[in-house]
Amino acid sequence: MQPQVGLIMGSKSDWPTMEHAANMLEKLGVAYETRVVSAHRTPDLLFEYARTAAERGIQVIIAGAGGAAHLPGMVASQTALPVLGVPVQSKALNGLDSLLSIAQMPGGVAVGTLAIGKAGATNAGLLAGQILGLNNASIREAVEQFRNDQTQAVLDNPDPRAE
Ligand code: RP5
Question: Which InterPro entries match (predicted)?
Answer without folding.
Answer: PurE_ClassI, PurE_dom, PurE_prokaryotes
